[in-house]
Amino acid sequence: MSAPSDLAVASHPPSGAAAAAASSSSGLTFKLHPLVIVNVSDHHTRVKAQAACSGDGTSAAPGQPPRVFGCVIGVQRGRTVEIFNSFELVLDPVSGTLDRAFLEKKQELYKKVFPDFYVLGWYSTGSDVQDADMQIHKALMDVNESPVYLLLNPAINLSQKDLPVTIHESELHVIDGSPQLIFVRANYTIETVEAERISVDHVAHLKPSDGGSAATQLAAHLTGIHSAIKMLNSRVRVIHQYLVSMQKGDMPLDNSLLRQVSSLVRRLPAMESEKFQDDFLMVCYSAKLII
Amino acid sequence: MEATSSASMARQTWELENSIQATSSDPDALDAIYRYDEATQTRAQQEKPWVNDPHHFRRAKISALALLKMVVHARAGGTIEVMGLMQGKCEGDAIIVMDAFALPVEGTETRVNAQADAYEYMVEYSTINKQAGRLENVVGWYHSHPGYGCWLSGIDVSTQMLNQQFTEPFLAVVIDPTRTVSAGKVEIGAFRTYPKDYKPPDDPVSEYQTIPLNKIEDFGVHCKQYYALDITYFKSSLDSHLLDLLWNKYWVNTLSSSPLLGNRDYVAGQIFDLADKLEQAEGQLAHSRFGMLMPSQRKKEPEESPLAKVTRDSSKITAEQVHGLMSQVIKDILFNSVHPSSKASTSATDSSGPVPMIES
């Protein structure tokens, strides 16, 4: 992959890598579905396995898995961009650009099955945004005026706590007197539907798929809730520790953070009206009728 | 952190108890299944070990990606049956499903060969995919039975028999997205039909399923014509890593899911069905008082009386209700039984107070 990036470096001044650290100001909220993450990961694993098997190490640098490219699709409603699904794309190794005919064909096929989804952007794997990526990004701009770029870092780092997935948008910034497009990072949240959550849970924790007795099923369900509560507890403790150390003076006072914590705390109890209590008891009663 | 190590220990004990084979943690070995070896596949195609043994394939291994795609597609269809194809390969007595894709046809029970319409789509999709590095062939089809269980209906059986005659190896998978959401676990079944004149040995009925009354006849007529395969799932090392990290964001959704609310319609339907079944069982019980002269010696296992079946159905509904109710009650305790005290910093610990069982 050295030839295309040389070309890219020659045509664009080397500002891409540094600017990727800036954060987005477009005000769009991004929601990502876990299916996309699993899709990209599967694509990467497949290509890596095939490359390892065929023993062809000429194109990729030794020790580095080949990069994969694909398109992400989803829905954009107002300021919210929700990424539901993705599919693979073919990169022309000579020119470093995407195969347009392929993209269009695939888009057509997916439109038939999921008529609501539009092309929202593209994805790739790698540890950081590279200069050649801007070319591909620009090429996609005629499909969607402001595509998103999803980068997945396939390196398995066991000490990592955060998902190695970053979403980038492109923004026009004036650098050194000339307007240029650079990548800026955007925040995203993970969004899911109930069915997706259950299957991700199922595969992640390898729950027993057969019927089992009612007791084991109940145990499984409660274990899931228990782990979720444990997470909540550990997060709350982290906040608590932070506040205590702030009180002691170990950490500098951060007023905006204090305001956020105080608003969080004031949200409890979540619902205190009498009507809610009545409704809640009614739900308990009717559920118990069946039990 | 202590939380993560005890969580991993809990998971390991869980896996041990459920005899899930610990696959080797070597990432290369785990990912080896993703390699597609053209030569082995063509050899298997030529040998055709399944021609002689109708029971040749016993296991189905489904990848995490395929499962996720199928469930999401099935759920997106709502109450309409949807279908799609699966791509993969076969290995010994297992059919391995690597990926799945949806077909733009809406299956209804009256269409005999819904796949005829989708051939063009399928051919186009497969050729395009080969370009993109997805080398596997189509190895099966899946469709959804929203709300009425995982089994093959009469039409499904005839479609599958046709497939098994012409496009072997082929697997049929059925997913029930409604039951998945209501029960909190994935409802999926993998089947292969027996050839027309084959008399299967009497295997024990694998797992009892509740089937709504209006479908039970269709189920009963054809249930001996196919057999179920054991389903196991696999994921790559990168998948496992990502899914672990995903949990860091996901626990919010687990805690905030409300199964009682989401499944209202389905539960109401189930209860109606249960009432009908009770009436039927009552009628049968009244008749059998006169007919209980000779115990039937023909079957190896005595068939359950209808009342016993109804009991099982009702306990299944009950279990699901218990799950939903527990989630609601836990949420209530966690978030509602706290009262703001004067100091902002101490009420953070108060919120975890009413749940004394949590030890980290």
Automatic annotation (TrEMBL), chain A:
Pfam families: JAB (PF01398), MitMem_reg (PF13012). Keywords: Cytoplasm, Nucleus, Signalosome. GO terms for cellular component: COP9 signalosome; cytoplasm. It comes from the Eukaryota. GO terms for biological process: protein deneddylation. It is found in: Cytoplasm; Nucleus. One of its GO terms (molecular function) is metallopeptidase activity. InterPro entries: EIF3F/CSN6-like_C, JAMM/MPN+_dom, MPN, MPN_CSN6. Its main location: cytoplasm. Residues 30-174 form the MPN domain. Belongs to the peptidase M67A family. CSN6 subfamily. PANTHER family: COP9 SIGNALOSOME COMPLEX SUBUNIT 6, EUKARYOTIC TRANSLATION INITIATION FACTOR 3 SUBUNIT F-RELATED. Component of the COP9 signalosome complex (CSN), a complex involved in various cellular and developmental processes. This is COP9 signalosome complex subunit 6.
TrEMBL record, chain B:
InterPro entries: CSN5_C (IPR040961), JAMM/MPN+_dom (IPR000555), JAMM_MPN+_peptidase_M67A (IPR050242), MPN (IPR037518). Coiled coil: none annotated. Belongs to the peptidase M67A family. CSN5 subfamily. Residues 60-197 form the MPN domain. One of its GO terms (biological process) is proteolysis. Keywords: Hydrolase, Metal-binding, Metalloprotease, Protease, Signalosome, Zinc. This is MPN domain-containing protein. It holds the Pfam family CSN5_C. Residues 341-352 have a biased composition (Low complexity). Residues 294-315, 340-360 are annotated as: Disordered. It comes from the Eukaryota. GO terms for cellular component: COP9 signalosome. GO terms for molecular function: metal ion binding; metallopeptidase activity.
